[in-house]
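stuck on this fold:
=====
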Amino acid sequence: MENKVRLLINPEFVNLSAAEMLSSLSKGEMLGRVQRFLPALKEEHLVAPGTAGVRSQVIDRTGALAREAIEVPGPHSYHILNYNSPGATGAPAYAAYLVDRLAARGDLDHVRKTPKPQKIWDWEPVSKAMGLAA
């Protein structure tokens, strides 16, 4: 309960929530935000509200918003939490960084021309069972 109270009195969270709510409720507010990136956009172009996913922000134990992406490596997975996608600007660079990290862990070893035998997932028996392999 204490964390929830800290969150509700955190000025950064309150300002972020208010700005998001205002732009969801006001076409003019949304237009102003989008025009920073697309100055030629006109209000008549915004014909109907769209749907978008909710980007949950990770909150630490003190109630502060986590600023950076959090990487959680697992034995057979690699999770990225709190990543606020920059779209076309930073996504390719971040993807290249992640490929580097996964390669360093050995997670991409199966992609090489002479792959190691797979214990968890082996495509050959699956593709044969599906009638895809020759």
